[in-house]
Amino acid sequence: MSNNLLKGKKGIIFGALNSESIAWKVAEQAHAQGAEFVLTNAPIAMRMGEINNLAEATGAKVIPADATKMEDLEKLFTEAMEILGGKLDFVLHSIGMSVNVRKGKHYTELNYDWLEKGWDVSAVSFHKTLQTAHKLDAMNEWSSIVALTYMAAQRTFPDYNDMADNKAYLESIARSFGYHYGVDKKVRVNTISQSPTRTTAGSGVKGFDGFIEYAEKMSPLGNASALDCANYVITMFSDLTRMVTMQNLYHDGGFSNVGVSNAVMQKFMEE
Q1: CA distances in angstroms from 265 to 97, 110, 255, 268, listed in the order given
Q2: Number of domains in the chain
Q3: How much is the pLDDT for 2?
Q4: Is 3 domain-assigned?
């Protein structure tokens, strides 16, 4: 259902890989709500994914960009403003990667070269994106920049590995840069802490299927789907949330405030 919440708004959506991606769902919902945008991903991710299908369905242009490279980001924002005809109203940062997770390195045995790569892709790229947008004066006043995160930034989930550290750093960037961007340009910067979600990236974490079931039983409302998350992102892009900034917003069916649930306790009490 469209309420034209984003009618006339323009933006950039990072990280749509395939139809399982939260970024993919955000693009579909943004299009349905009247927004125009460009899609972007790293060239290697674009070769693996189906982003051109999404571009065709939403009337979007695709601009390849490695979000760890300042020159790519400057080209991306400059071309996006040219294509869309002016400054931007929203940006979604939906990027995350851990080589240590991918290669099965235990947290106590991290390869630091791999750690640095994952940290750059998953967290520092957000600072680089914000810095580029700020330098180019690419965002309209009251525009909204959102990054996706996970509550392993606050609590220990052993197999989430160094991605937990990356997410903690990402959330800190949102607060720190969000202050300066708010003062300077009235631009909002927030993170959304989503339920465990069956995406290509999420499914790479050891024991992911079991954890999804656990989170489902812990959360009073159950796990939030990728589509639910996309709808929340749309509200953050809209004018309805124009005074929300520097926040880490939990979108997890209540998981983050539950110590233990009856459903989980029942599993331990079964004979």
Answers
A1: 33, 34, 15, 5
A2: 1
A3: 73
A4: no
